[in-house]
Specification:
This protein has helices at 22-40, 94-115, 121-134, 177-187, 194-211, and strands at 48-52, 56-62, 65-67, 70-73, 79-83, 86-92, 142-150, 153-159, 165-167, 170-173, 219-225, 228-234. By secondary structure, it is of the alpha+beta class. The chain has a single domain (45-234), classed as Glutamine Phosphoribosylpyrophosphate, subunit 1, domain 1. It has a 5-stranded antiparallel sheet, with helices on one face. Helix 2 (94-115) packs across helix 3 (121-134) and helix 4 packs antiparallel against helix 5. The N and C termini lie far apart (100 Å). The model is unreliable at 35-41 (pLDDT under 50).
């Protein structure tokens, strides 16, 4: 009979999770987007250029170091010599640039002592790529252009934060990329000499400086040929 059998235990009531109203969800997403945009504003800017010409390679960058709306330095150095015939130009955190270039420079010297010959541009770029990839969990925040002249002639390599290596004839990295690359693509030729290439790089960086508030205060050059490398600076 009903009522004489064993009573089954009642299952606990599962609490219902209230659904977030559509308006509240949109406001939260908008707030997260605003925070992301504010974070992007604090990424340091730069306009850094590398160009291959028939006589060698030119690496150049402007000298301003900024964080958000604050200009930290007007004499920052973003172009570095790795060996007499290999250099690197960077955009990103200056401290990370310095750590990365010091590491590659030291390993390039060890390579030349162990093997008895200079490291090639391709090998230097691959070495830098390995360092960046090994640091991928705590990355060095820098975009890098490696260029130089070796037995195979002048060459240029572009690297991102995680160590991707891409060969190219010209490249621009940093916050002024969109402006500078347009100037270079309009006038670049493979048979340019050093003077023509330097004038083109100067014009490209000046164009970026005129529109990018995070770039400015002069240009550093590293001019690399078979005879060696020369560093030059111009004030704007």
């Amino acid at each position: 009979m009903e009522g004489n059998g064993p009573q089954l235990p009642q299952l606990p009531t599962i609490p219902q999770i209230p659904l977030m109203p559509q308006v509240q969800m949109q406001e939260q997403q908008q707030a997260q987007g605003n925070q992301a945009q504010q974070g992007i504003g604090w990424i340091p800017g730069a306009t850094t250029v590398g160009v291959v010409c028939k006589d060698g390679v030119i690496l150049a960058s402007e000298k301003r170091v900024s964080y958000g709306y604050m200009i930290v330095s007007k004499g920052g150095k973003k172009v570095f010599k790795i060996t007499d015939q290999i250099g690197a130009a960077c955009a990103g955190l200056v401290s990370d640039m310095q750590v990365l270039v010091r590491d590659v420079e030291a390993n390039a010297r060890l390579y030349s002592m162990d093997v008895g010959r200079r490291i090639s541009v391709r090998a230097a770029a691959k070495l830098m790529s390995n360092i960046l990839f090994n640091r991928r969990m705590a990355p060095l925040i820098t975009q890098t252009i490696v260029g130089g002249v070796d037995d195979e002639g002048p060459s240029l390599w572009v690297l991102d934060v995680l160590g991707s290596v891409l060969p190219d004839e010209y490249a621009v990295v940093g916050s002024g990329t969109e402006i500078a690359i347009a100037v270079i693509e309009e006038s670049y030729r493979k048979d340019m000499n050093i003077k023509e290439a330097k004038d083109l790089v100067t014009r490209a960086i000046k164009s970026a400086i005129s529109r990018d508030s995070m770039s400015g205060d002069g240009i550093d050059f590293l001019i690399i040929t078979k005879k060696g490398s020369i560093e030059e600076t111009i004030k704007l």
